[in-house]
Amino acid sequence: xxxxxxxCSYAYYGSSRMKWFFQKPYIRVDxxxxxxxxxxxxxxxxxxxxxxxxxxxxxxGTEIYGPNTLxxxxxxxxxxxxxLQDRLRRFFSTFGLVTSVRCLPHSLDPYQCNGIGxxxxxxxxxxxxxxxxxLVFPPSICSKIINIRHLDTDKCNDPLYTNKQRHYANQIxxxxxxxxxxxxxxxxxxxxxxxxxxxxxDFYGKIRLAGLSVVMKFTNWINFLTTAPMNxxxxxxxxxxxxxxxxxxxxxxxxxxxxxxxxxxxxxxxxVESFEPPIERPxxxxxELQILSRSTxxxxxxxxxxxxxxxxxxxxxxxxKEYRQQLKAEKGVTNSV
Length: 337
Known about the structure:
Keywords: RNA-binding. This protein is of the alpha+beta class. It has helices at 60-65, 81-92, 124-131, 161-186, 212-218, 221-226, 248-270, 287-292, 304-336; strands spanning 69-73, 98-105, 113-121, 147-150, 188-190, 199-201, 207-209, 234-237, 240-243.
């Protein structure tokens, strides 16, 4: 007898386990054959059922929530819709007054989100401003990049914004190295011809003359060469660029600082501080009270051995907490010295 093990991912914050298997998205193998491979919708990329289904326009949210509504897609699963609604309300409240937030539950599990949500604003100006925002969830929620679409004006954000910014930051490093070796050979160069002989790749892989990454990250070449830590490598005098005295080891250290600085700037752009404090959640019940709600056929809640193990567990956690506090205090003393 062969036993098959069902793999289910655990959920948190009140969500239940996923009780269904993952289904691959439908892809037409032969686009020309309508008999064996039915046509797919351009809106949701699903099979078109002409007999039992009705066509969808993708703007059904405006009929329910109003014109100042944003449609959010690619929301993470493994969280309850209420948890995501609370988080989305605190994020979008920075752009204006939010009237309603709705995350649709999954058809097979009401404690999971199906990946689609709607956020409605009172004013149209606030909704348009929020439509172009870049919302990226933290790694604890799978680092999901949320696609935002304004249902009234069809304005969308750029889901590839973070990938493009990291690509431009990577190309900046190559441009700095190329300019460094160029000035070693020539000694100096004019600001008008600084990009001559320097090349980079755009986001789609094509090789082009250097300058796009500089414009996207620093607006122009002067800001690029005068901001820290680039001013430690190059110097501008009379519209000419000169190389300061640096070795390759010091250049690598400065470039590491530059990479860290650009990543910090990107994270600060993605993190929007909310004006509304989070909702106060009730304190969790003690473990003893939680055990009393369990059935006696699973745990012998009045067994002396079980109570003794619970006591040992509590003491062990207390010792671990004291040990962590001691290490933190010792680390603070060493840093101050």
